[in-house]
Design goal:
This protein has about 375 residues and is mainly alpha-helical. It is built from 14 helices and no strands. The radius of gyration is 32 Å and the shape is elongated. It starts with about 40 loop residues before the first helix and ends with a helix.
Length: about 375
């Protein structure tokens, strides 16, 4: 229901049947004006999805706090009350992909702090050196020190400064250019290592090394490359889960009665479960970003750790509860099948994650 302005004419613009109320009894089209205000483009999408009658919120409520309930209701035929599984999954995927973009992509607080400390330390050393030179000059002018003694003192101070390892540490921290990538400083060195390698490791890792050297040539440090890599993985996770959907449903089909449960039924369970996983991922992202803006107090870190642990535990338990509620096995059989499915899918998801890591680095820009 769009809440758009109704037409005065009672003929349906789609099939030309008589429309007594809001919707055509023949084709179901809403009898509203063909032209609406500009904001209707956006409000119609929200209204259509949430339905204002609680359809969306009822779906989310069951999805989050009643594992398996939504799937059970849908398979029993109660479908008008809830958002359709595919529509729900696509919408949640869209939100999970969109929300991280609202958080500013800036240097982390620790990186900024570290860089500031390094620059301040280097500046102080330079100031101290300048003050020492001025002091020696003044003492020489006043006749307290001879020029020869002042020169010797200055050379001793310069020697000590050159021997100070913190200067090299600061310089190398500020400029990450010397840090090797997979034991090479550039692509030429990497190709030389590849020729000598008999295991094939360097051949497999070549596209990754090429991408990292490209990023390094753009002026990014090793730390910034890994931060960018992490952001790319976050954006790729929803796509990887979508690819894994039919595989997850296939494993469910293998472990259950083929006459009682169709592949379609397992698909509905999978869509609901993966929608929950995406919401869990979104919760982790939001929680992490909120904490990054809060002061670094012990109590805040403790609360973050507790919330993070609670989410992980609930994420692990959710599948077993949902599986037991939908498939209605005995508790023992449900736990046994649940564990088997959990192990099989952990292996499958691990393989998918390794592919994801590879693809994420290749597509990073």
């Amino acid at each position: 229901m769009s809440h758009g302005k109704l037409r005065e004419n009672k003929n349906c613009l789609n099939c030309n049947h008589q429309v007594e109320e809001r919707f055509c009894p023949h084709c179901g089209q809403e009898n509203i004006e063909t032209r609406q205000p500009f904001h209707y483009l956006f409000t119609h999408f929200i209204e259509d999805f949430t339905h204002y009658d609680g359809q969306f919120w009822q779906t989310i409520k069951y999805l989050l706090i009643r594992p398996g309930k939504l799937t059970k209701e849908y398979l029993s035929g109660k479908r008008q009350t809830y958002v359709a599984p595919v529509k729900l999954y696509i919408f949640i995927s869209f939100i999970t992909f969109l929300v991280p973009n609202f958080f500013p992509h800036s240097e982390s607080g620790d990186h900024k702090k570290e860089k500031t400390i390094q620059v301040d330390s280097k500046t102080k050393k330079e100031e101290q050196a300048q003050n020492t030179e001025k002091t020696l000059e003044n003492l020489t002018k006043e006749g307290i020190l001879s020029e020869k003694t002042a020169q010797k003192t200055k050379s001793v101070i310069d020697s000590a400064k050159k021997a100070d390892p913190t200067d090299d540490l600061i310089d190398s921290s500020l400029s990450d250019e010397s840090a090797p990538i997979l034991n090479a400083h550039n692509m030429t060195e990497y190709e030389q290592l590849q020729k000598k390698d008999e295991s094939g490791f360097y051949s497999i890792m070549k596209p990754l090394a090429k991408k990292m050297f490209e990023m390094k040539e753009k002026g990014l440090t090793k730390k910034q490359i890994w931060e960018k890599y992490g952001e790319t993985i976050v954006h790729t996770v929803p796509k990887a889960l979508f690819v894994y959907l039919p595989i997850f449903a296939f494993f469910l089909w293998i472990f259950h009665n083929k006459k009682k449960w169709w592949y379609f039924d397992h698909g509905i369970f999978t869509l609901h479960y993966f929608s929950f996983l995406l919401l869990a991922i979104l919760s982790f992202i939001i929680l992490k970003n909120i904490v990054s803006y809060l002061p670094d107090y012990g109590i805040i870190n403790l609360l973050y750790l507790l919330a993070y642990t609670a989410l992980i535990i609930y994420l692990s338990v959710y599948f077993f509860i949902a599986h037991h509620r939908v498939y209605e096995h005995s508790r023992t059989m449900s736990v046994f099948k649940g564990m088997a499915l959990f192990i099989v899918n952990c292996i499958g998801l691990t393989c998918m994650f390794l592919v994801l890591l590879y693809v994420s680095l290749i597509t990073m820009h």
